[in-house]
Structure formats: structure tokens, C-alpha cells
Write a structure and sequence with these properties.
The protein is of the alpha/beta class and 415 residues long. The chain has 13 helices and 12 strands. The N terminus is likely disordered. The structure holds pyridoxal-5'-phosphate.
């Protein structure tokens, strides 16, 4: 049989963010590239402008060549995550036996919430946060209670305490949906912060579900702590996949992991949930965790450089816009409140992720740059935009330059 075709990225030594041209990216048919007309630079949804990592592309090609497109079997995905967690986070004794494959992280979150809460129970979130946390919990009949982040964008212990108390008062089985690391702020929670969460959750009888999809994307200077390694978190769940770090959102497969005291709950997961993930997805995510480390390191170097480039570009073109340097993810949460753009929040629940208002609408209309609108991330989001910097330095530079020009054009002429 012929060997695998050449690697998709052609090189294992190059910053993956600089491989594809804008013309090549525009040929993509995913939502990032098709939601807006071709004159718009898309820096909104969490897709990356990278080619597939070679080990992932090779695994998929091998499966296609073999016609290996049946049902998935075995624990290779969980084992690969366990090896990755051991190597990267020093997280020994990963509980392969306490895992199950779910279609994707958000479907996994919903199914785990169904296991540990009842309809009408409360789900606490730290706003502003990834918009589907509101929508998906709401669609499952759970009531969302916000514990807003503090002014430093880190979790606020007093706000959590109060939210847990309220959550307990409105139903017998509340949960806390933790975003670890946090989207949209890029904050990587420290172990002491997570221990405080575990302590509060135990005291209030709140079950913690930790979304760890951004975990491999922790940048130099910060360290990721898997929630299940925190003392007091034995009854919690974590959900993760290779989707954000290796750009595999179209290849459905994620893992739900149960702490030792949650293993019995996980066994109640309905059988049909395991029918959702695709075998090609399982193969791709397994290959990413098992052999995608060198590619990830090149990506993290590129994201670290983009994080610094973004600071320089903002200082030059948008000095009134401020942000906290993200510690992880490829998302920057930009405070545009000093631009003086009306930020009235549309009535009702935080919106769907693609709703655009306030500064994001101005940047879309006037700069032809698509960003995520802050108001859809819940309380504290209006007046902010989320910028996805998983792109080439050239696209990032062009986008922020355009944004600066759009702001300058709004200023009344002097004199
Ligand atoms: C925090 C967080 N959770 C979940 C998801 C979606 O993951 P999935 O496509 O596996 O549901 C995203 C996507 O950006 C995310 O940022």
C-alpha cells in the first residue's frame, strides 16, 4: 500500500499562522469565511487560519484510503488525552475509565448538566462568558444565574458565593459551568482560584462542570490547571477536545471526564449520546493529542507573537481601546467603551454568537472587520468586542489598521 501523502502543512517547522494566504482562506466554506462578504476580514468566530497539523491530516488520509469510516470503538482518544495531560500539565493518573466520548464540548456540557441538575434548576456562569453557555443551558430548561467577573476579569469569590446561594435557593440540584481557561477574556484560572471554587461549590452543594476546550492554548507566562486535579473537585466533570487548539470543530468528537465521585453519574449518560461523535472526529482528535505537540508548540509561539503584535497595533491605531493581555486562548477582549459608541443592548437574553451591535457593528460597517460583539457574552459585555488573533500577522495588522481608520473617520474635524 502506498504511504501517506505529503503533510498538509508541508513543514513541521513553520508558524502555522503564516502558511495560508488570504486567497486560500477565502476558499474555505466554514462559517468564519462565509458569514460576511469577501471585503470583510473575519476575526470573530473561534476558527483558526491554520492548515491541518500533519499528524491529523495523515490520520484522516489513512482512514479515507482504508475506507475506515465505520463506528468508533475503544478508548484511544481518552488515552491520548491522558498522555497529553501527563506531559503538559503534570496531571498523572488520568481516569481513562471515567470518560465517555460525546459529540462535541457543548453537547457534552448539556448532557452532563442533564445528569447533575433537574429542569428548572440553576446553572451559574461567570459573565461575560461564551454565549452558548446561556443559550444551551436555557434550551435544556435550566435557569442561568450570573456571577460577574471582577474588574480584573478574574473570578470574584464574593459574586460566586452569592450566585451559589441564589442557585441553591431556586432548585435542589444547582451547577456551576466553569470556563477554564475563560472565553472571552483569555484568563487562565490559577490553582488557588480553582480551589476556592471547589470549596464554595462543596459548601453550597453545587456541582461543577468545567469546560476545558481552550486548555492546550495556554500561552507563555501562565499554567493550565485541570479542574479535576484540584482538591475538593472529586465530584466534578470536565469536558474537552482538540477542537480549539488544532482547529477541528468540523470533526465532531469530545470527551466528558468524571471525577471519582462523579463516575456513577457518568454511567447514567444515555447511550444515544455516544452515537453522535464521528469516527473520523475521534481519529483526528486522538492524533492531535498523541502526535500534535510539535505543531502546537509552533502555534503557541505564533499566538504569543500575535498577542504582542496586537498590543503594539492597538497602541498605535486604537489608543482609546484597552485590554488585559490574554494568558491563554487566541481571543482578545477589547474594551471599546471610551470610543463613545452607543452600546444599547438588545432586549432579552444574551444573544446568539453572531448578533452584532455597538462597537462590533461600527467596525463591521465602517472598517469591514468582523469581530464578536461583546453584548452577546452577557452582563459586562456591552461596549466590548472579542477579537480572534489566530490569523497571520499580515491580516491582523490590516484589520487593526482598518479599525483605527474607522474610529478616526468618526471624529469631528478639529477647528
Ligand atoms: C469555551 C468554549 N466551549 C465550547 C466551544 C465549542 O466547542 P464545541 O464545538 O466542541 O461544542 C467553544 C468554541 O469556541 C468555546 O470557546
Amino acid at each position: 500500500m502506498a504511504g501517506p501523502a505529503p503533510s498538509a502543512d508541508g513543514s513541521a517547522t513553520r508558524n502555522p499562522l503564516t502558511v495560508l494566504t488570504l486567497n486560500e482562506l477565502r476558499q474555505r466554506s466554514s462559517v468564519k469565511w462565509r458569514m460576511h462578504p469577501p471585503d470583510v476580514l473575519p476575526l470573530w468566530v473561534a476558527e483558526q487560519d491554520v492548515p491541518l497539523a500533519a499528524p491529523v491530516a495523515d490520520a484522516l488520509r489513512r482512514a479515507i484510503d482504508l475506507g475506515d469510516t465505520g463506528y468508533s470503538h475503544g478508548t484511544a482518544y481518552a488515552e491520548a488525552l491522558g498522555e497529553f495531560a501527563d506531559e503538559r500539565w503534570g496531571s498523572h493518573d488520568f481516569p481513562v475509565d471515567h470518560t465517555t466520548v460525546v459529540p462535541d464540548v457543548m453537547m457534552g456540557v448539556v448532557e452532563v448538566l442533564r445528569l447533575v441538575t433537574d429542569p428548572g434548576d440553576a446553572v451559574v456562569v461567570c459573565s461575560p462568558v461564551y454565549p452558548p453557555f446561556y443559550a444551551f443551558a436555557g434550551h435544556a430548561g435550566r435557569r442561568v444565574i450570573e456571577a460577574p467577573l471582577g474588574p480584573d476579569l478574574r473570578m470574584d469569590r464574593a459574586a460566586l458565593d452569592e450566585a451559589f446561594r441564589r442557585a441553591r435557593a431556586c432548585g435542589s440540584r444547582p451547577a456551576f459551568l466553569l470556563c477554564n481557561p475563560h472565553n472571552p477574556t483569555g484568563v487562565v484560572h490559577r490553582r488557588d482560584e480553582l480551589e476556592a471554587v471547589a470549596d464554595l461549590a462543596r459548601r453550597h452543594g453545587v456541582r461543577v462542570v468545567s469546560d476545558e476546550i481552550h486548555a492546550p492554548l495556554v500561552l507563555p507566562g501562565a499554567r493550565f490547571t485541570p479542574y479535576l486535579t484540584v482538591s475538593g473537585a472529586e465530584d466534578a466533570f470536565a469536558l474537552t477536545s482538540a477542537s480549539k487548539a488544532w482547529n477541528l470543530a468540523g470533526l465532531k468528537a469530545a470527551l466528558a471526564v468524571a471525577g471519582p465521585e462523579a463516575a456513577a453519574d457518568l454511567r447514567r449518560m444515555p447511550e444515544e449520546v455516544g452515537h453522535g461523535p464521528s469516527h473520523l472526529g475521534v481519529l483526528a482528535h486522538t492524533a492531535a493529542f498523541r502526535a500534535g505537540g510539535p505543531w502546537l508548540d509552533l502555534l503557541l509561539d505564533g499566538l504569543d507573537a500575535n498577542r504582542t503584535l496586537l498590543e503594539t497595533l492597538l497602541a498605535k491605531h486604537l489608543p482609546a481601546v484597552t485590554h488585559h493581555r490574554p494568558e491563554g486562548t487566541y481571543l482578545a477582549w477589547l474594551d471599546c467603551t471610551r470610543l463613545g459608541i452607543a452600546t444599547e443592548q438588545p432586549a432579552g437574553e444574551p444573544g446568539v454568537a453572531s448578533d452584532v451591535a455597538g462597537p462590533a457593528k461600527m467596525f463591521l460597517d465602517d472598517a469591514r472587520v468582523a469581530l464578536s460583539s461583546g453584548h452577546v457574552f452577557g452582563t459586562g459585555g456591552a461596549g466590548f468586542v472579542r477579537l480572534n488573533f489566530a490569523t497571520s500577522p499580515a491580516i491582523l495588522t490590516e484589520a487593526v489598521t482598518r479599525m483605527g481608520r474607522a474610529v478616526d473617520a468618526r471624529r469631528p474635524p478639529v477647528g
